[in-house]
Write a structure and sequence with these properties.
The chain is α/β, with parallel strands linked by helices and 316 residues long. The chain has 11 helices and 12 strands.
Length: 316
Amino acid sequence: MAVIGALEVSAQGFGAMGLSHVYGRADEEESVRTLQRAIDLGITFFDTATAYGNGHNEELLGRAIAGRRDGLIIASKFTHRQGGDGRRVSAREAVDASLRRLNIERIDLYYLHRIDPDTPVEESVGELGRLRDEGKIGGVGISEASAAQLRVAHAVTPLTALQSEYSLWTRDVEVEILPTARELGIGFVAYSPLGRGFLAGSGPVEDSDRRNIHPRFTAEAVAANSRRRRAIEDLAERLRVTPAQVSLAWVLAKGVVPIPGTRHISHLADNWAAGDIILDERTIEELEAAFPRGATVGDRYPAEQMKLIPAEPALA
């Protein structure tokens, strides 16, 4: 088990984003079965967002947990701009809509998904704090915030969690953001711990897969980054485990809570078993030497989305 603020969660959570066509077509019935199998395995922490399929993901998760809500920690996220027309919504509107779609009475952890450039972060989290006080949400979170933004937000409303991308090929948070979260007592949730599948050896197979527009999935970037991935593959072969398990074991060794996602029941048990792999200090150093901070080729997101990602200080 792990602790995020006052929330006790499974050591790994489940990131549901990929169940809403982000990576190409998804079968809803298989997705529901996968989510329910995750519960059977002991996963108690499930992550969704209003932006995943314009609410579809929340509805899907709501279906999967119906009648099985007890003991689960449900997290969702919102942005102030929603839908194709960028309609502005308040945190209160977003929470009420999320509650309806999830069909639950309280969301255990609710994040500001991205800081709105036109809305002070303290205003956004302040409203979430009031919703927490009313019992509509259990904890207030923020996603992809800088260290300075974390301090400002936490001073207004104590934060339960920070969610940021973190994996062997995305280590920038180690410079300032992760240490600040730890200093303030804010739990850290690592999304895309498998590098959107890349570290596990997968990539886009359909034209509709969103990874096709990500700079890290261009042919040139894949060729360059694959050379580093060989370190994971070689270690996996030596340990007789999968590259995905090695990658997750590294994130788990950092004392954070990863939320890998998968559409397929067959991958669930493999991911979960990463918790049984203990990497020694020498092995961790070997992996980190193959993936030094800032060395991954390609930005994390397309240019427009990168504008909402806080700039990091110079890497040390």
